Amino acid sequence: MLIEEKEIFLELGLSWWGCLILLGVLAVIIGMVCCYRHWKRKVQKQKALRGKNGSDLSDLMCEAEQKPGKGSPSSVMEAPAPDSPMNSLRKRFSHFMDVVMPWEEDDAEANNSKPRKATESPKLIMVAERRKVPSYRDLPPELAEELLKPREDFRSLLFRYLNRSGRTNPEIYRAAGMDRKLFSAICTKPHYQPSRGTVIRLALALELTLPEAMEFMERAGYAFSAARPGDLVVTYYISRGIYDVMIIEDALYEIGEHL
Hints:
The protein has 13 helices and no strands. The chain has 259 residues and is an all-alpha fold.
């Protein structure tokens, strides 16, 4: 029995030592992989920096070729130093990791593609800024004068109708069937473009007449059209003084339309 117990103990001891050795090997492999990833990213960053300063380096090389000397770069490049054992070992390890983890190269290429977009973005921003600034110098004088005339925009017209209605803002956007955030965005953001259905809902909540509703739509960049069945339904109810959004929605639902 004692011999059997010793044998069992030895077997268990060997198994525990095997587990510890296996964990140590795994820790070494994980450490090597982390070091390789760090080294790979560092090399990619250096390549990116060399790409940025490539034009300056090429100019310097041209000047050096034109003026050769004792310490010129050409003389140094003609006799390259042999690879050290450490460099050869590093190259072998890099080749081994490229075979084991081929996706690292794809990640590095994806990371290098991002700074290129950042370098091109200022040019696009400058072009966009130029397009935003209107220039009427090349237009006919009559057209330029018509474009420069002061006009009441959609927000100003909305505020005028809101003041005329005598109702509070919550009463208006509840009658229009919209939430407070959307109504606040329309009132506070100068360049906010509401949708066509939202403008119609506001016109119904403000109880505008048909000419006022048509002007209200035009200020927002829209217009009623006789070719749209939904517009015919909306103008029909507005011309008869019916501004209930639910009634109009039910009528639009019957013909397969909606606000």
